[in-house]
Structures are given as C-alpha cells and as structure tokens.
Design goal:
4-stranded parallel beta sheet, 9 helices, alpha/beta, about 30% helix
Length: about 325
C-alpha cells in the first residue's frame, strides 16, 4: 500500500470504508492504524468483501481503501487499492505469450481486449480463483498461474438442465441485488407474465440461506446479481440466473452469460381476464391443504352406537 498516496487521497475526506477480502486481512491493522494516526478526524469503517470487491455488494462511502481483487465490471468511484509487482520471471513469461491478456486489479487491471472481444485465446493473470472462474466459464480462458480448472461442460450443462426444469413452473420470485439490475429484473418479469406465469420482484442485497429460506409461495427463484458471484445455496426449489430463464423459453444455447436475457414478451391474449382467472385458480389449487384445522370447544372422543344397515334416503342433507 502506498501510504503517501493514501494520505493525499484522504485530504478533505470525512469517512472511509476499509474493504478487505479474507486473503488480504493481514494488511488491515497497518492500514487502519495509519489512517487513525495520521487522519484521526476520518471515520473509518471496517468492511468484509466476499472473494471479489464489488461496489454493488457493499454500502456506499465517500472513499474506499480496497484490499483485494476488484470487480472488473463495476468499478469504484473514489478509491485507492493495493498493487503487486510480478516477478521478472513471470514478466518474461508473459511477454512471450501471443494470446490476449487480462489482469486483475492487483496486477494493474489491464486487458488487451474489450469484454466483447475476449475469447478462449486469453490468459488471465490472477491468483484469485473467483476472478478466474468468471473468465473460464464465460470464455474458456486460460490461467496464467495455473489455477484449478473446473469442469466447464458440466457447469454449463447443469445450467441448461435447470432451464428445462423450470419450463413448466408457474410462480417465480425475481431477486435483484442492486438497482443497477432493476431494469433487467423487470424485463424478465414482463416476459414471464406474458407467458401466463406469476412473477414478483424482490430487492435483496443479502442472499444468505437464512434470508432466502423465508421466501414462501414460489416455485423458483431467479437471481439477478453481479455475474462474478455464484449463488451456491441449496433450497427445496431451483435457484437460477437470467441465462437459465432465457434458455427455458428459447431452447437455444447461446454464448454463456449469467445475465443474458433477450426473450421478448409474447403478444397479449384476447382472453386476458380468463387468463388471469386461470392463473389465480392454479395458485389456489396449489395452496390447498396448507391450512391448519382448528375447532372450538372440546372434541367429543366418546364412542357412540350408530344405526346399522344402508341408508335409503338423506332427508336432512344440507340442513
């Protein structure tokens, strides 16, 4: 950390978010002590980042000190971050590569190609498995530091399998974790409703198991989040991304992108009112048997003698 640059950046600031991932927590004390010693008037908040530092996943602050790998899709506005110099051996090895290069923020955040031009002929310079996984699953990129390679085909196949699984479901909860994705969430909802599905929106920053398990009355949860983050929670209902919803209704295998969604709403039916009644009826039928029986007074547990034989009429039926 360049403490001289940090002092310069903190001039005139009143608050700072000190955001760190687990890998760089050993730097927290030195940075915190420096800020409190040199800038006692600055309120400093210690924050925890989950693998990747993304502004969509934390509270807003006037200034950030970032200790970790930053999200390449959503940059922070006013910040200072750590940097690391590659060894001479690694630099020589990198210069000999003819492929495209993508570096994480610790190594300068450099990319020789734009996001749309990245392909499998790309080396990702990072020691963050989470950062590399994003480029591996999406582009089949290579790891410069030879990080673990997952089973990409199994991963993509599981996405398509989930897409087929949710085709016939009726009730969807669409969760967006940031206002950045609100418009995409509304687009998905509109497409589902036009296909006679029931869909509602939820704005949740916290995707913990405790929060998700409380969502009732739905058959599927659609997560609209920063694509570098993977929701691995196992619930009794499927959890999918916009990609699976798109595949469910298009049946087309496109270039993988978690937040890809290009399905247009279907034309409105001439029998809108009947459609609405039908959807409501299906929900009521699904809720049958979920009520709890309750009776007033004491229950009669005595055994009584009844009449024998077969009844020939029901004179008091319905009375």
């Amino acid at each position: 950390m360049d403490f001289g640059l940090l002092d310069e950046k903190l001039r005139g600031k009143t608050e700072v978010g000190l955001l760190s991932t687990e890998e760089y927590k050993h730097m927290l004390r030195d940075v915190y002590d420096h800020i409190k010693g040199r800038h006692p008037h600055v309120d400093t908040f210690l924050l925890n980042g989950e693998g990747i530092l993304c502004p969509l996943k934390t509270k807003s602050f006037e200034f950030f000190v970032l200790l970790g790998v930053c999200c390449p899709l959503h940059p922070f506005e006013d910040f200072i971050s750590i940097s690391c110099c590659m060894s001479q051996e690694d630099m020589n090895r990198l210069e000999g590569k003819q492929e495209n290069i993508v570096c994480d923020s610790v190594y300068g955040g450099y990319s020789s190609k734009s996001e749309d031009e990245i392909d499998s002929n790309t080396f990702v310079v990072t020691k963050s498995q989470m950062f590399y996984d994003y480029y591996f699953y999406k582009y089949d990129a290579k790891s410069f530091y030879e990080l673990e390679k997952r089973d990409r085909m199994q991963y993509l196949s599981s996405k398509c399998n989930k897409g087929r699984m949710i085709q016939d479901l009726q009730i969807f909860a669409i969760i967006f974790t940031s206002r950045v994705y609100e418009e995409l969430a509304r687009t998905i909802r509109k497409a589902l409703i036009s296909r006679r599905k029931n869909a509602y929106l939820l704005f949740l920053k916290d995707l913990s198991y405790e929060r998700m398990i409380t969502i009732e009355g739905t058959e599927c949860i659609v997560i609209v989040d920063c694509p570098l983050f993977e929701c691995n929670l196992e619930l009794h209902i499927p959890i999918v991304t916009p990609f699976e919803v798109e595949y469910a209704f298009s049946g087309e295998w496109k270039r993988f992108d978690k937040n890809s969604f290009s399905i247009e709403p279907e034309p409105k039916s001439d029998c809108t009112e009947i459609d609405l009644v039908g959807r409501a009826g299906r929900i009521l039928l699904k809720s049958e048997g979920q009520n709890v029986p309750y009776c007033y007074g004491e229950e009669d547990m005595s055994i009584h003698n009844g009449e024998s034989g077969i009844p020939c009429r029901y004179d008091s039926e319905g009375i």
